[in-house]
Amino acid sequence: MNNPRSGMTAINAVAKASTWVGGFALLGCALLIGIDLILRKTLGVSMGGADEIAGYVLAITSAWAFPVTLLKRAHIRVDILYARLGLKPRVVLDLFALACMAVLVCALTYHAWAVLWDSIDYHSVSNTPLQVPQWIPQSLWFAGYLFFALTLLSLMLTSLGHLLRGRWAEVSALIGINSVEQEIDEELGNAGKPLKEQTP
């Protein structure tokens, strides 16, 4: 592969699609809960299940939001010492942080699969009037963590590819912390663009 970063194209495409789907799902939940509240106040009736559906959507969208946040380099990191280091020490710390996150995400993905498999094995359904088969929301929830793990793996491989070519700056641009100036420039660059053209 001539360009190590080209392997991230599919990951970024899936992440962008999940952002839109998750956003619309959350808006749908807000609408559903709003309608349910209005019906309770005005007619004294309830649609039922709005809170349960919202819980599923929140869990699923949270799992899918983690890799998107990682790709945007928006996870909170303490950079008091980091900002004072040179390029190569920063890259070493970036790779160490990515490796630590990979350990955590692999553990989360493993346990998410265990929960999903138990629901499939025992034919679990929710203890509510909706009686939702638990494997349905849990499959989407697990898929979010699995995509998170794949995103981490892709970032690691792409970063290693850059390192083998001596492209330290490319690694920093891919997994490093945005400086205040970079964040300001990005926001100013997005300010005048239509929503669909803004940096994902």
TrEMBL record:
GO terms for molecular function: transmembrane transporter activity. Its main location: membrane. It is found in: Cell inner membrane. The chain crosses the membrane at residues 20-38, 53-71, 91-115, 135-157. GO terms for biological process: C4-dicarboxylate transport. It is a multi-pass membrane protein. Residues 30-158 form the Tripartite ATP-independent periplasmic transporters DctQ component domain. Keywords: Cell inner membrane, Cell membrane, Membrane, Transmembrane, Transmembrane helix, Transport. Pfam families: DctQ. The keyword Transmembrane helix applies. Belongs to the TRAP transporter small permease family. The complex comprises the extracytoplasmic solute receptor protein and the two transmembrane proteins. Part of the tripartite ATP-independent periplasmic (TRAP) transport system. This is TRAP transporter small permease protein. It comes from Pseudomonas putida (Arthrobacter siderocapsulatus).
